[in-house]
Fold this sequence. Notes:
The protein is an alpha/beta fold.
Amino acid sequence: MGGAAGGGKTVGILLEPLRHFTNPHWAGVIFRRTMPQIKKPGGLWDESSKMYMPLGAVPHLSSHGFRFKSGMKIEFGQLEYDSTVYDWQGSQLSFIGYDELTHFTKFQFFYMLSRLRSGSGTPGYVRATCNPDVDSWVAQFIAWWIDQETGYAIQERSGVLRWFIKLGEDIIWADTQQELKKNYPDCLPLSVTFIPARLEDNPILVRNDPSYKANLQALPMVERERLEKGNWKIKASAGNVFKKEWFKIINPELVPAGGRTVRYYDRAATEKTDLNDPAYTVGLKMKEVSGTYYILDVVRGQWGPGGVETTIKNTASQDGKDVVIWIEQDPGQAGVVEAKMWVKLLAGYTVRLNPARKDKVTRAGPVSAQAEAGNVVLVRGLWNEALLNELQGFPEGKKKDQVDALSGSFSVLVEHSAGDFTKEFIPKPLNRVGSSSW
């Protein structure tokens, strides 16, 4: 079940074992890919405790499970690696649940079917929830229920059973069990169905949290199509992350006064020759005023290390000391040494280092959503066309340096308060999760 956010998938999979809570021989497991996903606030463990303990279930922290008065058991487990499935050898399960099936591998799913050996009097079965992921094996597995042109679920096929057998890596489908038994008498067909669920199917959530729908609608276009509308075909591709028509271009005199201004650098260090086409060093200047983000200027070039230093220093002189300089920081000890070098080189200017820890598409998501809403404006300049062409082609285009600089400048304006911009900068080693360059 699934295909969109807010449809009640997790609640549904937690309620499923309660069909059997009087059966002393019934035992099941619900998986997330990692244990932290189970134990995080509001995750499976918290929500199941609210449901199961009022019915007399006793929690067992060592096994991350519950035992009911009848003897029925439900556990929560992780399958972080493919090899983790072997921890379940010898198990006899009446039920297997997967919360977010697209996070699991095809091997894990089909291997765990061999653990369905129920002695409870009811046939073993699987229930799974999922959000759309076009690159997942799940997208292929449920393709019959999805319109392959639009990516949306075919409503008339919701809940319709189909049957399959697996021969090696091949899955053979049929509309009836009898058809498969006739053609493959030595194989036992299994039934599958897919039930789409969207936020509209969960009026309790809509009533209790009216802002949830607004939060989905504020997502970047690709994520909004997936999580709000349940689109199984949408993916980040040219024209899906940024569109040229989202960006209004204004004359410099129309930029309002006030606000905060940054110049964010995504650096390269290879000089252009006749034999190469290296990445660009890009410095994008952005100003935020009352929730609108103005791209004031872009400098870019294929320079060597000396050219990069000279350009950044000269540009700082032209921008003035009111513009905070942000430079993307390399990880580890090398980044700390580099940070000290930039602070010394740009003495007299406010310099900040920003460690990049996310992939390019993820980093571009927040500014993409603001651009689609019309909140990112370009100031007219010779650099406009090159920037817009790169944005339109992202992430498939060869060059992504201007997109990285745009994502970086937007993120530091959003994530850091005005006070952060005036703090004394002290470089720290990035050797642990959550460390900071402040």
